[in-house]
């Protein structure tokens, strides 16, 4: 009987971790975004970030916010990975979830990093979180519909295996493409100064509206139960690449302003 209870606990733990793993860009996506950002960081920002992270790069810490999800101490940060507001409406702090969301989370990270009273420990923690959340913001279904958990409840097949729309956009297309995060970053578009300025203009809220508009297209791209495969990759992977690249450029812009 005791043995069965242990099995149930292990199984439950695995299921929790699997569910959590489906909530945002997979590890490759986050590391790609951060690696792209490194290309656009100023030397001063790079130096300060390395010092704050004890020599680690932002690519190395980009999955930290996911890694800590199973720790009860950090459960309060769960809602910071996404935001849900009705399509076509404007985001409002007054009606936003009081437990926080990705927009509030990003701003909190920025505030802590800019505050002279913040400890080095707090700054390091919120820097890791910021790197992750800006990546999340550029996965369109992180600004998706709350009623289907950002596409997690939209069941589809991926090469004839059970999946959901969120997971397809989080990791399955990226994994199927077969490149490491360094290869994806190395082959990413290199933005000119003019292009970088254009891409990084606007606010975090503006970027959330952009992601939400893309989320509408993502929802329209597949039917419930549809088998997605090579054609879906052909039609949609370019958008995945664009979002990884935009996320990287915008992350760099935010960090350059903080560590100026």
Notable traits:
260 residues; P1 Nuclease; mainly alpha
Account of the protein in words:
- InterPro entries: PLipase_C/P1_nuclease_dom_sf, S1/P1nuclease.
- One of its GO terms (biological process) is DNA catabolic process.
- This is S1/P1 nuclease.
- The protein is mainly α.
- It has one domain: P1 Nuclease (Orthogonal Bundle), CATH 1.10.575.10.
- It contains 12 helices and 3 strands; from the N terminus they run αααααααββααααβα.
- A 3-stranded mixed β-sheet has the order 2-1-3.
- Helix 2 (27-40) crosses helix 12 (230-258).
- Mean pLDDT is 92; it is low at 1-23.
Topology:
Blueprint: H1 2-21, H2 27-40, H3 43-52, H4 58-61, H5 64-67, H6 102-114, H7 120-137, E1 155-158, E2 161-164, H8 165-177, H9 181-186, H10 193-199, H11 204-220, E3 227-228, H12 230-258
Parallel strand pairs: 1-3
Antiparallel strand pairs: 1-2
Helix pairs in contact: 2-7, 2-12, 6-7, 7-12
């Amino acid at each position: 009987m005791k043995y069965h209870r242990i099995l149930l606990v292990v199984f439950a733990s695995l299921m929790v971790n699997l569910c959590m793993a489906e909530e945002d860009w997979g590890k490759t996506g986050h590391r790609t975004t951060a690696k792209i950002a490194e290309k656009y960081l100023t030397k001063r920002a790079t130096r300060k970030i390395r010092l704050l992270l004890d020599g680690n790069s932002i690519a190395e810490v980009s999955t930290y916010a996911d890694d800590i999800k199973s720790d009860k101490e950090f459960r309060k940060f769960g809602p910071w990975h996404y935001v849900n507001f009705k399509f076509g409406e404007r985001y409002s702090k007054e009606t936003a979830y009081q437990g926080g969301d990705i927009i509030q989370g990003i701003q909190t990270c920025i505030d802590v990093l800019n505050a002279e009273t913040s400890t080095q420990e707090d700054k390091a923690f919120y820097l890791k979180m910021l790197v992750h959340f800006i990546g999340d913001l550029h996965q369109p279904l992180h600004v998706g519909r709350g009623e289907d958990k950002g596409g997690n409840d939209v069941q589809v097949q991926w090469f004839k295996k059970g999946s959901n729309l969120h997971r397809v956009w989080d990791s399955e297309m990226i994994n199927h493409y077969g490149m490491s995060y360094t290869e994806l970053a190395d082959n990413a578009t290199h933005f000119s100064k003019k292009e970088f300025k254009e891409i990084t203009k606007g606010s975090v809220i503006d970027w959330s509206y952009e992601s939400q508009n893309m989320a509408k297209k993502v929802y329209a791209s597949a039917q419930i139960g549809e088998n997605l495969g090579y054609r879906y990759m052909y039609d949609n992977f370019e958008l995945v690449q664009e979002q990884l690249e935009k996320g990287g450029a915008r992350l760099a812009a935010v960090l350059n302003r903080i560590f100026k």
